[in-house]
Each structure stands twice: as C-alpha cells, then as structure tokens.
Amino acid sequence: MRIRATLSVLCITALAAGLVYAAPPGQIRVQVNLVNLFATVRDKHKAVVTGLKKDDFQVLEDGQPQEISTFSASDSDSPVTLGILIDTSGSEEYMLGSEKDAASRFLKRVMRKGDLAMVMSFDLDVDLLADFTDDHARLDRAINRAKGNSGAGGSVIAQGPIPQTGPKGTNFYDAVYLAAHDKLADEAGIKAMVILTDAEDNGSKLKLQDAIEAAQRTDTVVHILLISAGGGDEYVAKKLTDETGGRTIVVRNEKNLEQAFDQLYDELRSRYTIGYVSTNKARDGSYRKIKVEMKSKDYSALTRRGYYAPRN
C-alpha cells in the first residue's frame, strides 16, 4: 500500500502546477504556470447546467481578468479519483449503518472505468481501510469494516498526524489533511473527497486552515454530508467546502442521505475544466483569490476560491 505515515514533510505540491517545456538543445526552457479549475454550474432552480462553452465563463484572479487557455466539459466517462471519509466517532453511531449502506451504493453508481476510490475512517485515529482501487468488492468490505475506534483491519495512517499526549478526540482536520497530502496529492485529474461527518473536531493537532490548505494545494474538491442529530458544526463544514469548490449538504435522516448522494453524483459527473495562465508571473508562493463569473446572470459557478502560487 502507498502510505506515507506522518505529516513530517510539510512541503506540498503547489496547486498551480509548473509545466516545463523541454526545449531543443541551445534554446531556452520556458516555464508556464497553468492554473486548473473544476467548476459546476447551476441555474436559479439549483439544477446542474451542461452544454456551456468557454465564452460563457469569465475568470478573475485577485480581481484581474484572466484569459482562459484550456476548457473542456466533463462527461460521465471522465476519470474521477475519490476519497470516502467516514466519521466513526460516538456522535455518528446512530446513523453509521445507514451511512455505510448509502456509501456503498453511491460508489457502485458513480464509479466508471478508469475511476479509483479509497476508504478512510476517523475518530481517535485515522485509518486507511482501502487504498485506491476500482474493485467494488474490496471497497464494500472496507466500508463495512468502519466502526468506532477501529484500528484493526485497516492500515493506520496516523495516531493523529502528530503524536498526542493527554485526552484525544475526533481527528477530523487531521483526516482531511492526510487524505489530501498523503493520498490524493499524487493522483491526477478530477479529485474529490466525500466526507460523512458532523464536522466537529476535538482531537486534531492540525487546524481547520491546515486541512483547507492541503486540499487546495492538491486540487482536491471537498464535499461534506453533514450528519448530526444536533446539527453539527455547519460553519466548519461550509468553510472547508466553500474554499475548495465543494458543497455541504445537511442530512437529517436516511431519506435525506440518499438524496444527498444523488446531488453529489451530479456534481462529480457534470464538471467543467477551466485552465488559465496567470497574468501574475511572480513565483512567490502567495495565496491568490479566484472568482469564476458567468456571462448569464441566470447561472452561478461553484469552484474553489483560490490557490497557492508556485515558489522558486
């Protein structure tokens, strides 16, 4: 299994990939910083909009218009790499069985040829239950093994990313960081996490911003199904999903859970890929804000809100 077990390496691949043109001998090598975005477009009735063209979009970086250089509309066969993260802490026990059943059905529906998925659980620890695979039976077995405090049966990625002393609690932020930094960073194409949780963290050594930055730097969209009898921490959930271009869907019961997975199916299979070369040529590692506007006021685009520039 491809597991890097600690967070000791804090240098993460930049989201805006540096593409190097290998010039013939005697010529200068040209380096281009291409920023890739994945966007979902919805109309005023929240329905997913397909069939749009490049000219329907406008991209702004730090308020400055950018020229779209690459554009494509994803279809149902576009490869997707998924991370399924299941909160197995005590607060989720009442819905855990339904969550596992729905997650298994979701993967069977959403996965196509060329897709990969992994399964992780988190509570006091973060456990890798299945590494990336297209084997549905293996994924089903991994999901079914998810249970509270389950270190056995999976490969423990971390007892919390940084060794802990004293009381431990739910390692939500650590789990998101590890999934992005240790697992999804080396994957290509459309990458997404689907997290079933109440978004309450009381054990991680890392902070919410660390989790957000890890997802942004690895071009990973985070979707959260917010499942909690008490409402959960909606602020944390929306902060994480909004900053990475994903959605938070509040789930109150089993019927809502199935509907939420249906919405995520539309999100994953109806994306536009937009690329541009930033007019800001500085390679300073700074955070840059992104806004995607639609020419039609009837539409709105959902995408990540920024990226980290490469650094020399």
Overall number of strands: 16
Determine the fraction of residues in helical runs and give it as a percent range: 10-25%
Please tell me the total number of domains: 2
**Helix-strand makeup class:** alpha+beta
Q: What's the order of the H and E elements?
A: EEEEEEHEEHEHEHEHEHEEEE
Radius of gyration using CA atoms only: 19 Å
Globular, elongated, flat, extended or rod-shaped: what is the shape? globular
Description:
The protein is of the alpha+beta class. The protein folds into 2 domains: 17-74 and 272-308, no CATH class; 80-269, Rossmann fold (3-Layer(aba) Sandwich). It is built from 6 helices and 16 strands. The chain has a 7-stranded mixed β-sheet with strand order 9-8-7-6-10-11-12, with helices on both faces. Strands 1, 2, 5, 13 and 15 form a 5-stranded antiparallel β-sheet that branches. Residues 1-31 and 159-167 have low confidence and may be disordered.
Features:
single chain, 312 residues, alpha+beta, Rossmann fold, 2 domains, seven-stranded mixed sheet, five-stranded antiparallel sheet, 6 helices, 32% strand, globular, disordered N terminus
Can you summarize this structure?
With 312 residues, the chain is of the alpha+beta class. It has helices at residues 96-110, 136-145, 172-183, 208-217, 234-244, 254-269; strands at residues 17-21, 30-42, 57-61, 64-66, 68-73, 80-87, 116-122, 126-133, 155-158, 190-197, 220-227, 248-251, 272-277, 287-294, 300-302, 306-308. The protein folds into two domains: 17-74 and 272-308, no CATH class; 80-269, Rossmann fold.
